[in-house]
């Protein structure tokens, strides 16, 4: 009887040699006349153990990792096909504490199924959400999403149900569902994992969104740097079409939903929803004025729901298990779970899906195992390049949209990037402003000009110009306020937050040779 071995095809696992490992396992099995079936699954999200190979045994799946091609012969000798002992053996996958303590709802099938197999998806509760939605009126679907408390996972945390209702209520001959798969935030990869490891769940979520608002066409706007996700999505779309899950008559319901993947041009601003629409229409990715809201006048001027990959991929479980099931997870107004992406200076990087309320400290210490360098944590940037730098003293803050807003931070798309005590926070502040200057779409003055002037002012502060030190800090804070208040979109409106957080929490890094406002020279010697 054939033995099933899982070797991830996830982009991170591939970058660590997963293809060569799969090839070596196939060749070794052939040379030993063993009947082995290799399935290329998604990653379980334990990136420090990739390529992590799993073997289906009578006791369950047994994991080994990280496996290199040179380890393969030894694994066969150790009878890994029957769960044999080896230094690389990690035990039963489901018992690995990193996974066991998670609450995987959106990522329920991640690493378990073959992402290219619709049958495998169906065998693991796939398309149950769509089946439920097909029995409901559009308004009832929208109500279920509203009742679940699901808020947009792309960054702004806007309630998904309210957006859907606005689109449902807009009368039009054509409506669209657009999936924002631009995933531009630093240290984030949950969208990519879903698209590579469980693409049908996104297709199902978009189909449900189409039924809910009356849209018959959907686009996945995918960042150009994700070729593996593109292949996985296109294969899944073809399979769904062939079996009647996409097309003119989905599941014999008489309702149509068509879906296409569109490759993005590769600009951070194209993740902003209105720039994304411009880009999708074939124009330069530049921010549109709002109103009109995209839900009323979006793609090609038609009512359009734009949601992040994780938002849409979470919809099927809500329709399948019910709004109350999902809403029962979380804290305050942050309901459900969030796939957090742990990156930067930590021993163990990867995907942690937990209900809102888990603290940064739990994430970094329990899942991350502390810093990779072994030095103390100094700062954590949560929510991508526009997120504030959180100091070590605030690590007990629960991950909750409101709790983060209260400390001047944001949860955003759930990226968590850790820095140890060797980080230069003045350099990080400069990086934030420079990022904004480079990525600015140029439509509004506070961002286009302000970010460039901001870099110059930070450079003058870092240079330690004694005579102008205090004045430059006043100028920088004033400039940040202007950008926050006057920018057209959140790129210019939020880029000041990492800068201000660095000034507020790590002021000493700006005091090279110069006195500061918080640490002024004695009266009489003061400048400015
Ligand atoms: C500069 C900028 C970049 C953004 N990049 C992304 C992105 O890469 N992916 C994403 O889903 N949302 C991104 N957003 C948020 C989108 O504008 C929008 O809020 C989101 O697609 C809505 O989906 P959601 O409600 O499901 O989060 C970005 C916003 C800004 C201002
Ligand atoms: S804030 Fe920056 S990116 Fe946003 S509209 Fe203004 S110039 Fe463009």
TrEMBL record:
Pfam families in alphabetical order: Complex1_51K (PF01512), NADH_4Fe-4S (PF10589)
4Fe-4S found in the keyword field: yes
Entry keywords, A to Z: 4Fe-4S, Iron, Iron-sulfur, Metal-binding
Xref: InterPro entries: NADH-UbQ_OxRdtase_51kDa_CS (IPR001949), Nuo51_FMN-bd (IPR011538), Nuo51_FMN-bd_sf (IPR037225), Nuop51_4Fe4S-bd (IPR019575), Nuop51_4Fe4S-bd_sf (IPR037207), Thioredoxin-like_sf (IPR036249)
Gene3D superfamilies, per the entry: 3.10.20.600, 6.10.250.1450, NADH-ubiquinone oxidoreductase 51kDa subunit (3.40.50.11540), NADH-ubiquinone oxidoreductase 51kDa subunit, iron-sulphur binding domain (1.20.1440.230)
Sequence ranges assigned to domain NADH-ubiquinone oxidoreductase 51kDa subunit iron-sulphur binding in this UniProt record: 426-471
Cofactor(s) listed: FMN
SUPFAM superfamilies per UniProt: Nqo1 FMN-binding domain-like (SSF142019), Nqo1 middle domain-like (SSF142984), Nqo1C-terminal domain-like (SSF140490), Thioredoxin-like (SSF52833)
Transmembrane segments: none
Keyword Cytoplasm: no
PANTHER family registered for this protein in UniProt: NADH-QUINONE OXIDOREDUCTASE SUBUNIT F (PTHR43578:SF3)
Protein family per UniProt: Belongs to the complex I 51 kDa subunit family.
Protein name: NADH-quinone oxidoreductase subunit F
Higher taxonomy: Bacteria, Pseudomonadati, Pseudomonadota, Gammaproteobacteria, Lysobacterales
């Amino acid at each position: 009887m054939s033995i099933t071995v899982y070797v991830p095809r996830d982009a991170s696992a591939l970058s660590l040699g997963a293809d060569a490992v799969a090839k070596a396992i196939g060749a070794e099995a052939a040379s030993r006349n063993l009947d082995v079936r290799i399935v290329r699954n998604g990653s379980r999200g334990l990136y420090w153990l990739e390529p992590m190979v799993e073997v289906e045994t009578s006791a369950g799946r047994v994991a080994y990792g990280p496996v290199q091609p040179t380890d393969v012969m030894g694994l066969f000798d150790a009878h890994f096909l029957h769960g044999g002992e080896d230094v690389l053996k990690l035990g039963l996958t489901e018992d690995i504490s990193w996974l066991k303590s998670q609450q995987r709802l959106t990522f329920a099938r991640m690493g378990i199924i073959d992402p290219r197999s619709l049958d495998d998806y169906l065998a693991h509760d796939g398309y149950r959400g769509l089946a439920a939605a097909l029995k409901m009126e559009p308004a009832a679907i929208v109500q279920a999403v509203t009742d679940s408390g699901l808020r947009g996972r792309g960054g702004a945390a806007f309630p998904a149900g309210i957006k859907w209702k606005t689109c449902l209520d807009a009368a039009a001959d054509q409506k669209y569902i657009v999936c924002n798969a631009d995933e531009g935030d630093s240290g984030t990869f949950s969208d990519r994992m879903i698209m590579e490891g469980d693409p049908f769940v996104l297709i199902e979520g978009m189909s449900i969104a189409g039924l809910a608002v009356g849209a018959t066409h959907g686009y996945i706007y995918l960042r150009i740097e994700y070729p593996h996700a593109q292949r996985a999505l296109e294969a899944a779309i073809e399979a769904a079409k062939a079996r009647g899950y996409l097309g003119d008559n989905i599941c014999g319901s008489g309702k149509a939903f068509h879906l296409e993947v569109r490759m993005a041009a590769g600009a951070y601003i194209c993740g902003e929803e209105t720039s994304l629409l411009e880009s999708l229409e074939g124009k330069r990715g530049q921010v549109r004025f709002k109103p009109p809201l995209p839900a009323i006048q979006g793609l090609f001027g038609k009512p359009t729901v734009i949601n992040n990959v994780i938002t849409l991929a979470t919809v099927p479980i809500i329709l399948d298990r019910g709004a109350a099931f999902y809403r029962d997870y979380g804290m305050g107004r942050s309901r459900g779970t969030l796939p957090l992406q742990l990156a930067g200076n930590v021993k163990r990087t990867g995907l942690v899906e937990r209900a809102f309320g888990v603290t940064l400290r739990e994430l970094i210490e329990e899942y991350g195992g502390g810093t990779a360098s072994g030095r103390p944590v100094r700062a954590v940037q949560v929510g991508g390049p526009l997120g504030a730098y959180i100091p070590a003293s605030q690590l007990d803050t629960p991950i909750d949209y409101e709790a983060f807003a209260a400390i001047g931070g944001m949860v955003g798309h759930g990226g968590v990037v850790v820095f140890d005590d060797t980080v230069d926070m003045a350099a990080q502040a400069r990086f934030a402003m420079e990022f904004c200057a480079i990525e600015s779409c140029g439509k509004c003055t506070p961002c286009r000009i302000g970010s460039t002037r901001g870099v110059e002012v930070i450079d003058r502060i870092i240079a330690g110009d004694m005579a102008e030190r205090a004045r430059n800090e006043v100028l920088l804070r004033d400039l940040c306020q202007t950008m926050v208040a006057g920018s057209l979109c959140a790129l210019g409106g939020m880029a000041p937050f990492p800068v201000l957080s660095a000034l507020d929490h790590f002021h000493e890094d700006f005091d090279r040779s110069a006195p500061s406002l918080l640490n002024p020279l004695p009266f009489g010697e003061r400048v400015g």
